[in-house]
Amino acid sequence: MTAGERVRIAKGTPAKVDAPRVDAVTAWRRGEVMLDDTPLPDAVAEINRYSKNPLIIDGNSIATLRVSGIYHTGDIEGFAQTVAQLYGLQVTQEGDQIHLRSAVPPTP
């Protein structure tokens, strides 16, 4: 590894070396999450780190979507609504969970 690189380790996946932007990695200090063409499941995992009530992706059809932007930590509903507007998705509250799903029902 060289200066500025990091190793990301996630359960069930191989270790991955990347070189993220320092301002993106330290955004949490400013109460922000910076995403740059991030796969939706990774973006949701990052946003969920700052929330008691998790955001759940319902269905594989939206898992390939990518998200960019600066979002406030702790504003999981704002993140979900923004992504829903951007991609024409549906946001629902079910108990203490927020669900993000395709607005179009899956075909059988």
List the helices and strands and how they pair.
Layout: E1 6-8, E2 16-18, H1 22-25, E3 32-39, H2 40-48, E4 55-58, E5 66-72, H3 76-87, E6 89-94, E7 97-102
Parallel strand pairs: 4-7
Antiparallel strand pairs: 1-2, 3-5, 6-7
What does this 3D model show about the protein?
With 108 residues, this protein is an alpha+beta fold. The protein has a domain at 31-102: 3-Layer(bab) Sandwich (Phage tail protein beta-alpha-beta fold). Helix content is 23%, strand content 34%. The protein has helices at residues 22-25, 40-48, 76-87; strands spanning 6-8, 16-18, 32-39, 55-58, 66-72, 89-94, 97-102. The strands form three sheets. Strands 4-7-6 form a three-stranded mixed β-sheet, with helices on one face. The longest helix has 12 residues, at 76-87.
According to CATH, what is the topology of the domain at 31-102? Answer: Phage tail protein beta-alpha-beta fold
Give the neighbour order of strands across the main sheet.
4-7-6
Q: Class of the domain at 31-102 in CATH?
A: Alpha Beta
Decide which structural class fits the backbone.
alpha+beta
The sequence of SSEs as H and E is EEHEHEEHEE
Runs in which pLDDT lies below 50 for 5 or more consecutive residues are none
